[in-house]
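Reopening: structure tokens for the guanosine-5'-triphosphate complex, inputs below.
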Amino acid sequence: MFETLTDRFTKLQRRLLGYGRLSEKEISDAMRELRVVLLEADVHYKVVGHFIRSVNARLKEKDITKALKPGELINYTLFQELTSLLGGRTRKLDLSASPAVISLVGLQGTGKTTFAGKLAHRFQNRRPLLVACDPKRPAASEQLKLVAQQARADFLPAAKDVVGNCLESLRRADRDGNGMVVFDTAGRLHVDDELMSELEAIQDQAKPGATLLVLDGMVGQDAVNQASVFSQRLKLSGCCMTKLDGDARGGAVVSVRQATGLPIQFIGTGEKLTDLEEFHPDRIASRILGLGDMKSLAEKVRSATRPEDQKEMAEKFIKGKFDLEDFLAQLRSIRKMGSVSKLLAMVPGAGKLDVDEEELVKVEAMIQSMTPLERHDPDVIDGSRRRRIAEGSGTTVTDVNRLLKEFGQARVLAKQLSGRGQLKPGRVPRLRRR
Ligand SMILES: Nc1nc2c(ncn2[C@@H]2O[C@H](COP(=O)(O)OP(=O)(O)OP(=O)(O)O)[C@@H](O)[C@H]2O)c(=O)[nH]1
Ligand SMILES: [Mg+2]
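Re-run output (same inputs, fresh job):
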């Protein structure tokens, strides 16, 4: 998987590691090579532009080169930015409803039926029911039946009235106690109006909790186009990228999130039922970059940034100059220490404080979706930027509003307190969920 991309990255990194210093020229040489690597991997050109700009901006704004070799700093920055490009945090499939209803959509042959089987296999304990939704091609229904047998899942054959059949499957699931229902919808060679109307009808009437777009990872940038077309008509919750075991160049995986906002939730790595992986942006980034030992590099960066930076940050905060970039750095160092609640439980009297870890993850995702300017000067974040940030981080505008409001209040409070000399360095505002 991603061999070509990893190969190119490894070569680039080997050269970068040799850099003794990091001047404008080295940075721009490295960026030029990075552009070639990405374009050759068939990454969408707009995504390449975005990626290069953010890596570049990050490299220029940071100066922690004392403890790190320049090449290491570039590697680390590439890792961080690639993780963020791939979606930042892992998006788990929402299985809170019972039954959890999942509709699989996508063009012909992308791997929907195979993926239905893989899902059923993975979530066997929920007694999945696989529903065939392509009455026009009897072989499609037969294929799903076989897949269901292999995965030991229940099966409902296709019927002429596709939507009616979906509704029938929900009644059956209630009756038989299936905790998961998967609609294996019909594929078409091209996106046509009839297909879309049928999928819309399924969405409107059977109301699946998740609609996943299945994309063939081999088609490269075309996956981005498919994702755009499907999301114009349907409310997609995420996608599954299949066939990444082949000689896929990786471009689709790298592009789709940034180009369409659609998170990748699974990747298919073979034809067997077990060839399914949950998509973790950080692990994939590390794999693509061929970085085995990201953990110790991260440690090094942390210790390199620690003592002076912490003090400087506390001072910034007191002076009201603390920006969202600093805030993100703080948040990361808190999260890297492990579970915040567990940590707090060790502090006498603080065990009952409610620190919502999920909230911390969300806040981190939101700040990651901001540009350097927005992080530095949150006042520029207007309505459309808020929408973009929410979209990019998989949160809502209300979440972004809340973060900005609380951040603003903390800043004002810090200024007031520091005026009265009541605040000591080292304190950072704690976010509460409302
Ligand atoms: N190598 C590899 N092959 C896959 C993967 N996923 C699916 N396939 C193969 O791709 C082909 C098409 O898969 P299907 O699951 O039938 O695709 P589909 O989207 O249901 O196709 P239609 O129902 O015709 O729209 C089959 O030969 C699968 O074995 C994967 O992750 N890796
Ligand atoms: Mg099929």
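The pocket of guanosine-5'-triphosphate (ligand 1) is lined by residues 106, 108-114, 140, 187, 214, 242-243, 245-246, 268-271, 275 (CB under 6 Å). The CA atoms of residues 123 and 395 lie 26 Å apart. Marking as resolved unless the reporter disagrees.
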